[in-house]
Amino acid sequence: LHMGKTMKEDLTVVVKYIKQLYPPEFNVFSTYAELYHKHFASQAKKNAESHLEDKDVYLLLSWVHNIYPKDMRKDHVLAEELEKVKLGSLLPSSLSKELEKKYLDNEEATIKNSLSKCLDKEIQRWKEDKEPEKLNGHFQSELLAIFVIQSVYSGQKRATDISAAVGEELSRRLSKELPAFLKSYKDAFEDFKEKSKKFRYYKPILIANINNCSNFR
């Protein structure tokens, strides 16, 4: 963040005040921009090749795909000059792809684990034989549907915020995870229906889960 802010502020000073003090053939702005980019890219590469936590991977990819090329290089003061320099990406394509795969693997595993834990909690609630909550006079088991939908949606949004391609790949992966979760949910529900007929709130629990169907659709 400090490096990006410094680069943006210094290059703005070069455009506004320093560039016109030199003959055009000196290419003063290009010299500054290329040197800053070279240093920034070397630091990004160094970070990418070190051990990164999940949040660090996301932040670095955000810099590579969004913050650096869009927020910085499309700045209204710098855009025209930077367009002439053609600086390229902060990371080599191969290293960027490696980070993207790591991010996608982690995100997919995290969402899959969250859905599994959520279903376990829901099953536990059924076993406690408590009356489900009502919404607008109808039994609901909305916590499960809301949590699952939000988890999938939030994951897709985070990935798309990195890049459209990363978002599409995560959507493709989650398009397999969600049906797998729904099958587990259905199997658990069928098991509950068979084994829990003597529960006091058996029917309300059935109704609450049936009412989940519209949310999942």
UniProtKB/TrEMBL annotation:
GO terms for molecular function: SNARE binding. Coiled coil: none annotated. Pfam families: Sec6 (PF06046). It comes from the Eukaryota. One of its GO terms (cellular component) is exocyst. One of its GO terms (biological process) is exocytosis. PANTHER family: EXOCYST COMPLEX COMPONENT SEC6-RELATED, TUMOR NECROSIS FACTOR ALPHA-INDUCED PROTEIN 2. This is TNAP2 protein. It comes from Syrrhaptes paradoxus (Pallas's sandgrouse). The gene is Tnfaip2.
